[in-house]
Amino acid sequence: MMVSNLDFINIAMTSLKRMTPNQKVVFKTFKKDRKVEVLKLENSYTVIEDGFKNNIIENLEYKEIKKILKEIQKIEFPRSNKLWYSISTVLPEK
């Protein structure tokens, strides 16, 4: 589904509240060459930035995510108007 870049933070935060553990929310640019994933674990969150920068930020609390997503939005989606948005389930590692 396509969403507005202006709604990126609000949609991400709302989705994270509603998600169950081992699910992730993914935002990609229109060309799908850059993406940001937020993985919900049992007691924490992990943000994966894959695009201009490649970072993994682990062991985050819910209240820390908004600030990090704002910084990532400026770097990864500076001129994007629309973003691809999806929620998927992640299989736990064995």
> Which sequence of SSEs, written as H and E, runs from N to C?
EHEEEEHE
Which range best describes the helical content: under 10%, 10-25%, 25-40%, 40-55%, 55-70% or over 70%? 25-40%
Lateral arrangement of strands in the main beta sheet? 1-6-2-3-4-5
Name the structural class.
Answer: alpha+beta
pLDDT < 50 stretches: none
How much strand content do the residues show?
35-45%
Based on CA inertia axes, which overall geometry fits?
globular
Note the gap between the termini: 31 Å
Mean pLDDT: 94
**Could you give a short account of the major beta sheet?**
6 strands, antiparallel
Secondary structure tally, helices:
2
Number of domains: 1
Q: Kindly state the number of beta strands.
A: 6
Radius of gyration: 12 Å
Question: What do you see in this structure?
Answer:
By secondary structure, the chain is an alpha+beta fold. It has one domain (2-89). The chain contains two helices and six strands; from the N terminus they run βαββββαβ. It has helices spanning 8-18, 62-76, and strands at residues 2-4, 23-28, 35-40, 45-50, 54-60, 82-89. It has a six-stranded antiparallel β-sheet, covered by helices on one side. Helix 1 (8-18) packs antiparallel against helix 2. The chain is globular and about 35 Å long.
